[in-house]
Amino acid sequence: VMVALNEDAYEMQCIEWLKATGWNYVHGGVIAPEGTAPERATYKDVILVDRVEEALHRINPGAPKDVLKRVRQMLESPGETDLLKANELVHRWFVEGVPMKVREGGEEKTRRISLVDFENPANNEWLVVNQFSVTGENNTRRPDIVLFVNGIPVVVIELKNPADLEADIWDAHNQLQTYKEQIPRLFYANALLAIADGADARMGSLTADKERFLRWRSIDGVERDPHGVFGHGQTMIEGLFTPKHILEMIRYFTIFQTAGGKSVKVVCAYHQFFAVKKAFARALTASAEGGDGRGGLMWHTQGSGKSIEMACLAGMLATSTKLENPTIVLVTDRNNLDTQLYDTFVAAKALLRQDPELADSRS
């Protein structure tokens, strides 16, 4: 086990782990406006313009250049100033594509422009950048690590010095809150946030408070803490921040819901993520030609997030090309659970691509 003696060494160690899982690396200073290979005009810009336009061009063959340029401009300013609303809008664009008017054969049609290729992770461009300075209204901030897919910043990782006994992981969490206030543009397209300090590492959504920042404790959904209890950072990078898993988190495991009059963004924890993927695989084999029709069982303690798991699983089943538009029925044994579950599904209708119906009787 390598013990990093300071924050810089730990940052480079995290970058090495990321590179090993499929990310390319460039230092933020190199691509800064006055760097040796600039990729943005000013420090206010958070999007790597050329990379975005190249990726859009590659993933949407035949789409007119001016339309793709317009999509890139929409990513830079989505037209919502409220951070969470902007984030929800950009998330919908990720999942469903950006609806754009395109002239084809003399008539105007709506075409959905894909920001990422979900089916083939390798067809996207994966870039890790450290020390990426961004200027907001009044301040310039420099998050430790930013992950870009196709030139769009989707993950911000804030680190603390493992050797500094005064600074702990929650200082990194506080730092993220400051960034959200002072450089909100960096978070319009954000999928995940992470904090780490050597021994501890946790992930959470854009709106997650301390209680909702959780360790990602598996790489394969079988073994827990494969790198030991001091290896949470490496486990999180190898088990969550892989190109394939980030795309799955965006596509199937993110829900925006209103709780107590407040909007929150929910991303699944590791036990939910791996359980749903296993249940989905089981459903496919069980319902296939010659399958035994038995889907299996998930056993949970109270408050561990069953409803959200069901919604995510339903979303995977409903949009699967292998199942041809299945009907999904949810049965509960208590009326108040019925209403609760229905509310969760209404909140998750973006995952389901349809409105859930509430039955008023068993018949």
In short:
With 363 residues, the chain is an alpha+beta fold. 37% of the residues lie in helices and 17% in strands. α3 (49-59) packs across α4 (65-76) and α9 (270-287) packs across α10 (306-318).
Helix fraction bin: 25-40%
- How much strand content do the residues show? 15-25%
Structural class: alpha+beta
Low-confidence stretches: none
Strand count, sense and closure of the main sheet?
A: 6 strands, mixed
Mean pLDDT: 93
Order of helices and strands: HEHHHHEEEEEEEHEEHHEEHHHH
Using the alpha-carbon principal axes, give the shape. globular
Strand runs, count: 12
Whole-angstrom Rg: 21 Å
Q: Please work out how many helical segments DSSP would assign.
A: 12
Physical arrangement of strands within the biggest beta sheet: 1-4-7-8-9-10
Determine the oligomeric state from the structure: single chain
Terminal CA distance reads 60 Å
